Amino acid sequence: MKSKSRNLYLIPYVIWIALFVVTPILLVLYYSFFDIEGHFTIDNYKKFFTPVYLKMTFNSFWYAFLITFFTLIIAYPTAYLLTKTKHKQLWLLLIILPSWINLLLKAYAFIGIFGTYGAANSLFEVMGMGSKQLLFTDFSFIFVSVYIFLPFMILPIFNALDELNPSLIDASNDLGASPWTTFRRVIFPLTLDGVKSGCQVVFIPALSLFMLTRLIAGNRVITLGTAIEQHFLVTQDWGMGSTIAVFLIIAMVLIMVLTGKRKRGIL
Amino acid sequence: MKKKSKLSSIYLVIVFLILYAPIFYLMFYSFNSGGTMYQFEGFTLDWYRELFDDTRLLIIVLNTVIIALLSAVISTILGVAGALAIYYARRRRVKNTLLSLNNVLIVSPDVIIGASFLILFTIIGIKLGFVSVLLAHIAFSVPIVVIMVLPKIEEMSTSMIYAALDLGASRWDVLTKVILPYITPGIFAGFFMALTYSLDDFAVTFFVTGNGFTTLSVEIYSLARRGVSLNINALSTLLFVFTMILVVGYYFVTKRNNRSNGLGVKL
Fold first, then answer.
1. Name one Pfam family in it (chain A) (predicted).
2. Is A108–B220 a contact, with Cβ atoms under 8 angstroms apart?
3. What is the pTM of this model?
4. What residue in B sits closest to A14 (Cα-Cα)?
């Protein structure tokens, strides 16, 4: 009786998992073996290993890497300085707040800012640099992506820094370590978990961005996400789209394993 | 030392400025009579008037809100059941499996979720539109609710449940009179998260929405692709205000949540 009533909670939840977690992944895998006419084939996989798709995959990873790198470079000092402020929780909330604004609206704002007569170019004019083509460039794509992901990187790093025991830093200082050594040997290694999960939440979505590539990069940047969207909604080649999705899932799993928390004592 | 803290506050101020610049840029030009996002000609409320006269857009807003509320309510119920199921799972392996499956949708890129749900709904024969969007939103909100509720259940001391059982409470009483009141803050936090995820979602909705049905994000995307129109600015200003209200609500809920830690049964 007891165990039976306990299992009741499992019923709706397991149905949800079966229907919306397991089935979709299996379906993607299944569809990746069909060509556009519905014939069973492994051509999609052959096609994926042609230079066109490999180059796209490489580009996608390269952009995701750049985005993650710049986000980290900006986020780490921000998170560090935030932990030093007086009302740190309030400031953190203010940092997180823009991430609650609809992503599309922020992207749309940048169309205005980076446009030919936009704020950025006006600023350049004032500084005497002349106006530049900003929209539809790699620069604008990476800038806007970093902008959008920044709060997601700051949050885990902030939490890791916040949990750091300050006496460790004092100890390091007392033992004569320079601030840089303290950072490199004490602070950074101890906040590595935060950095890892931050990189995780930035890198994976960055691989699959597709609205930004269209709105900000003007279709010049094609990521794995753009390709999937294109195949599913424009060319209706679900098989090829699924094949790319399979590789994206594999990439995702690899990243999770690489950045996952290792148990203490192992490795 | 003083110089250093000055530099660091300048850094923080710059980060804050960049984070908020696009949002205020949008709001500022929503009052521009010039009709562009680069030359402010004069103050006007015309765009707001136009916005409120646009019945189609109002219907889209209404749709978005209905989808968000419905999906948040349903996913909260499913998520609480899921959290309880994980909590009651006796074997460590079952627990870990459920947790990993739960996290699949959280870490999956939106494109994968969207594409795989598109296949799923097409196969089951669900017409793309209101129902498919609602189901998709429920599906990706459930794990978020679980993540928000589970820690709350886990911090609850089991002796409370045993005490209630010893005092003759039925399992239903235990659930409604002991567990649910205790985890109410977690449930509210989960509900708010689900609500904002649903309001914000673009990528998944973009895949599973048919021709006749759109949500705000999808509509903004197609408007933005067509170019700048200050209606969107007016809309975003209103959305920003609305989001602020939601965030403040969420902030107070979580604050109450933190304060009640370890205080035992509330309400």
1. BPD_transp_1
2. yes
3. 0.85
4. B82
Q: What percentage of chain B has pLDDT greater than the value 70?
A: 93
Query: Can you tell me the distance from the alpha carbon of B198 to that of B206, in angstroms, rounded to the nearest whole number?
Result: 12
Q: What's the domain count of chain A?
A: 2
Residue identified by tokens 């993607």 is A28
B70 in contact with chain A, both atoms CB, cutoff 8 A? no
Cβ neighbours, 10 Å, residue A180: 8
- pLDDT above 90 covers a percentage of chain B that reads 33
Q: Cβ distance A162 to A80 under 8 Å?
A: no
Same domain, A182 and A59: yes
Range of the domain at A84: 51-222
- Mean pLDDT, residues A55-64: 92
Cα B34 to Cα B29, B38, B41, B234, distances in angstroms: 9, 9, 5, 14
Nearest to B247 among A19, A97, A118 (CB): A97
- HEC states along B187-208? HHHHHHHHHHHHHHCCHHHHHH
Tokens, residue A260:
């996952």
Query: What is the Cα B38 distance to its own chain's centre?
Result: 32
Same domain as A160, residue A245: no
